[in-house]
Amino acid sequence: MRFSPPLEAARLLRRYKRFLADIELASGEVLTVHCPNTGSMLNCMAEGGRVWFSRSNDPKRKLPGTWELSETPQGRLACINTGRANALVEEALLAGVIPELAGFTSFKREVPYGQERSRIDFCLQYPSGPAYVEVKSVTLGFAGSTVAAFPDAVTQRGAKHLRELGALVRQGIRAVQLYCVCLDGVEAVRPALEIDAAYAQALALAREQGVEVLAYGVRMGVEEMCVDRRLAVEWG
After folding, report:
1. Residue 82 has pLDDT above 80, yes or no
2. Of 137, 7, 2, residue with least CA distance to 65
3. 98 phi/psi in degrees, rounded to 5
4. DSSP class of residue 73?
5. Which CATH number, 3.40.30.10, 3.40.1350.60, 3.30.1510.10, 3.20.19.10, labels domain 83-233?
6. Statement: the pTM of the whole predicted model exceeds 0.90
7. Which of 44, 89, 138, 171 satisfies CB 3.0 to 4.6 Å to 181 for a cystine?
């Protein structure tokens, strides 16, 4: 995935009201941009730290740009735009980068399913039947560690998705939880038990029920990004 038009660099002044961020360009100009991340962004940002944003000339938009990347306090590059994870995974699926999910004949995005009115990120069609794939963007890293964690804030929605995946498996349908790690310097992923114990328990139960848990890393860059490797999943 190449960023087009190219991203612009700035410094973070502050993030506030969850979806807003004030940034300062090298020229001294201050802009308020959209922050497309509902999480806490723990360990992902620091006031004064470097950020990169995409600019929009759409006159219908209230804000001139979208915050895309951040240099973390540990000096890593993170993609804080959670919407990019699905696009990266789609690109990887079509390129055959994820062998566990290879061989599908067609796919659909955002398919409604389940008793709790969820939408699956990808429904892949195989000759043997469908596979439902839920994608989560991972950006939570820690100083001195190559293990990232999910989630970075309590996520009842994430636990709901795991329940829905487990229900699919009980119906004989293949279900996959795929963690897309949009943070460099990472070799493995684990559930963030210290942040959301309920989610960690839901993940363990889903795994016991037969939900497949995969993690893939993204090669990060300010010009382009791509899914390029499988990561280990640590269970503690």
Report:
1. yes
2. 7
3. -110, 90
4. T
5. 3.40.1350.60
6. yes
7. 138
